[in-house]
Amino acid sequence: MVEDILKAIPIGFGLAFMIGPVFFKLIQTSILKGARAAIVFDIGVVAADIVFILFAFYGSHQFLTEIKDDPNLFFVGGGILIIYGLSTYFRSKTELPTTDNGFVIPEKKNYLGLFVKGFFLNFINVGVLAFWLIMVLGVSSALSMDVDRIFRFFTAIIIAYFITDIGKIVLAKQLKSKLTPLVITKIKKGMGIALIIFGLVLVVKGFIPPEDMSIDDIIDKVQ
Length: 223
Fold this sequence. Notes:
Keywords: Cell membrane, Membrane, Transmembrane, Transmembrane helix. It is a multi-pass membrane protein. By secondary structure, this protein is mainly alpha-helical. The chain is built from ten helices and no strands. It has one domain. Helices cover about 75% and strands about 0% of the residues. The longest helix is centred in the C-terminal third of the chain and has 27 residues, at about 145-175.
């Protein structure tokens, strides 16, 4: 049991540092809205991961295998990211309320909205689906299809991933004292550009034949 958990923890830690739209959005949320808001956003992200894991494990292997290379998934997911990125970029020009010394007043927090954003930003990334499918198929076989061992393994991954994200959130929050309206605008514009780039990458990968996609390519798309 302990051996399975020790093998899972590095995977969860590594996932937390994979560069993607979720990574940047989590840091942005922590800086602009605080640690509590970022944690709620991250819970939404983790919920999407859990849905994928359960979906892959409980009798959906064939269905996921059939749809994971469907180019339409890349086009739809990439298109949503591009639209989201454009919205973030242009909304960064909105006038932000500030104090007399020029620092930004914390934005109002819609925790349900943050949870939903985290869930769908992760859920629309086809790379996440492909990653968990490969993990579930590979791990289930390696663990002799022992349900208890599989459950512990993926639980350890999710917990390690979430705890590492909390560490990132706390570190990002330390930058809050340095925020000014100009810095906020630059952060939001940068986030918008990053989302557009990730969206374009997904769309381009939709034109790549499935047989030319390696496992390394799939992992590169995760988060």
